[in-house]
């Protein structure tokens, strides 16, 4: 009998949903105070997750959720980069490339 593997779950900071980690995007704040997208999901630092969804990325910018998650001001340019990155990833998934 094959043992069932445990599926890692994480909570989206925007919607509050608990989702499979593979369907989320990790945002990291490192010790230097830099906030960036972590496509590998393994970078050192404090992580926060959002769902790979265009609406959720736009809502993250509107609510400025990473200000709260990281207890610091996050530049609006980062949110624009996040929206562009999520849009790109969503389109790749729709094409079946990921």
From TrEMBL:
Pfam families: YlxR
InterPro entries: YlxR (IPR037465), YlxR-like_sf (IPR035931), YlxR_dom (IPR007393)
Record PANTHER family: BLL0784 PROTEIN, YLXR DOMAIN-CONTAINING PROTEIN
Species name: Streptococcus varani
TM annotation in the entry: none
Protein name, as recorded: Cytosolic protein YlxR
Database matches in Gene3D superfamilies: YlxR-like
SUPFAM superfamilies in alphabetical order: YlxR-like (SSF64376)
Domain spans labelled YlxR: 10-83
């Amino acid at each position: 009998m094959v043992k069932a593997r445990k599926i890692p779950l994480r909570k989206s900071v925007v919607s509050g949903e608990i989702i499979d980690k593979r369907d989320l995007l990790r945002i990291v704040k490192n010790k230097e105070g830099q906030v960036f997208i972590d496509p590998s999901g393994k970078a050192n630092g404090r992580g926060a997750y959002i769902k790979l969804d265009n609406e959720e990325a736009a809502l993250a910018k509107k609510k400025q959720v990473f200000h709260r998650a990281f207890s610091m001001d996050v530049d609006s340019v980062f949110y624009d980069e996040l929206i562009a990155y999520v849009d790109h990833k969503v389109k790749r998934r729709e094409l079946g490339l990921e």
